[in-house]
Amino acid sequence: MADLSQIVKAYDVRGVVPDQWDETLAELFGAAFAQVTEAEAIVIGHDMRPSSPGLVRAFARGAAARGADVTEIGLCSTDELYYASGALDLPGAMFTASHNPAQYNGIKMCRAGAAPVGQDTGLAEIRALAEEWREKGAPEPVAETGSVTQRDVLGDYAAHLRSLVDLSGIRPLKVVVDAGNGMGGHTVPTVFEGLPIELDPMYFELDGTFPHHEANPLDPKNIVDLQARVRETGADIGLAFDGDADRCFVVDENGDPVSPSAITALVASRELAKDPGSTVIHNCITSWSVPEVVKESGGKPVRTRVGHSFIKAEMARTGAIFGGEHSAHYYFRDFWNADTGMLAAMHVLAALGGQQGPLSGLVAQYDRYAASGEINSTVDDQAGRLAAIRTAYQGRAGVELDELDGLTVTAADWWFNVRPSNTEPLLRLNVEARDATTLERVRDEVLAIVRG
Questions:
Q1: Residue 393: pLDDT over 80
Q2: Angstrom distance (rounded) from CA 312 to CA 324
Q3: How does strand 197-202 pair with strand 173-178?
Q4: Local structure of residue 363 (DSSP, 8 states)
Q5: What is the mean pLDDT of the chain?
Q6: How far is CA 288 from CA 365, 404, 432, in A?
Q7: CATH 3.30.2350.10 for the 260-364 domain, yes or no
Q8: Residue ranges of the Alpha-D-phosphohexomutase alpha/beta/alpha domain (predicted)?
Q9: Which of 57, 128, 148, 382 is the most exposed place for a label (fewest CB within 10 A)?
């Protein structure tokens, strides 16, 4: 029997099907989810992976056996599931492994109103129950088992997004979208329908085997096709979604990537125009430009750790209007503090279509510094390498260190952050500087210590 500690991660369940988990285990997870959330009803959705429908049916059986009525919304993006959880005020479960290869699948769970379920907010209890029941057998179904019904919420999801960002009055835009054979191919046509957008779809066929490229736009090799199409067709903008379409990446009219930090700053300025003085959350490795733009726009920047559970918790605590991460996760108060790449993309389209200039010119004001991007190094001793970096920079004049998330070292003209991966023997380095020469110097100096 598979070790559940290998598949129950910090924020979700994820593993290879059927080697690490299967429908039998999915049924136990469903029963445990219903019991831990004490839900009278839940909502479930899934991505396009071949294993998803069977896993959903099993999870629904388990939840119904504990007395929960189940609403299945079928094929959907992760943010569409969050919409359903928020709009219906129900706990939810999304079956997806995001950008992982075809043999993987997983479950992202939330409480009513799309509140996250992680290790400290129910996931550890769900795992413990599933382990117990796997060994001793699941409890007998309750006297009144729940029902299982189907419901399509795609139109309602699209209408909600369009009520938050009005695109009806923008100038006509030519938009290339690479869905990577993921769920963006399902949601984009409905969200964009009837808008002044000439849509050029790439890889919209739902195919969980990802025949064209991995559905992970964070890796530069996976946006090469999009960049080429934008240049070939003279499009105004290119958008790339990951497998479950909760993240969105942007390329400009030249096919050049726009950094998620620049998108965060742009969207923050738009949200703050609606509600001046609000808080905006950003993680500790977004660009200096993000808190600068937030302050310039009359908002209050709050810096937090990397990861959606930390961002969502800070948004709830501070009442923040918006939050953004370097990984292209964007969180909105108007969307139950949940992340939605689609809504961020719509903000970018509204900003672009609300003026006459190209996207490159529009985002230049938000892209102020030289950045390395995330550089991963395999190391034998994460803690030892981090300690060596701390020793090298501690006590230097004009340099500050903090350990909010990994180690951040800040000087007048540069900063860097080094974080250990939770799942692999890696250190992740991000460097930013006021110019490219300084960036290269600092990057090389830190990598020399990281890589020994």
A1: yes
A2: 10
A3: parallel
A4: H
A5: 96
A6: 13, 16, 8
A7: no
A8: 6-134, 156-255, 262-369
A9: 128
pLDDT tens profile 59-98: 999 999 999 999 999 999 999 999 999 999 999 999 999 9
Q: Quick check: 36 and 70 in contact, CB under 8 A? A: no
Q: Give dist(CA 277, CA 272) in Å, integer.
A: 7
pLDDT digits (tens, 9 = 90+) for 178-218: 999 999 999 999 999 999 999 999 999 999 999 999 999 98
Compute the distance between CA of residue 90 and CA of residue 113 in angstroms, rounded to an integer. Answer: 7
Cα torsion through 198, 200, 205, 209, rounded to 10: -140
- Give the pLDDT mean for 98-108: 94
pLDDT digit string, tens, across residues 239-294: 999 999 999 999 999 999 999 999 999 999 999 999 999 999 999 999 999 999 99
Q: Buried b vs exposed e over 234-247: b needs ≥16 C-beta within 10 Å? A: ebbbbbbbbbbbbb
Q: Where are the domains of the chain?
A: 4-152, 156-247, 260-364, 370-450
| 51-62: pLDDT as tens digits | 999 999 999 999
Q: Identify whether the C-beta of residue 240 lies closer than 8 Å to the C-beta of residue 228.
A: no
Residue 98's alpha-carbon distances to 32, 221, 301, 326, in angstroms, are 23, 17, 29, 17
Indicate the CATH number of 4-152 among 3.90.550.10, 1.10.10.10, 3.40.120.10, 3.60.21.10: 3.40.120.10
Annotated catalytic residues are: 98
Fold of 370-450: TATA-Binding Protein (3.30.310)
316-321 long-range contacts (CB < 8 A, ≥24 apart) are: 316/115, 318/279, 318/281, 319/278, 319/279, 320/278, 320/279, 320/280, 320/281, 321/271, 321/272, 321/274, 321/275, 321/278, 321/279, 321/280
Residue 5 DSSP symbol: G
Of the candidates 11, 3, 6, the one whose C-alpha atom is nearest the C-alpha of residue 338 is 11
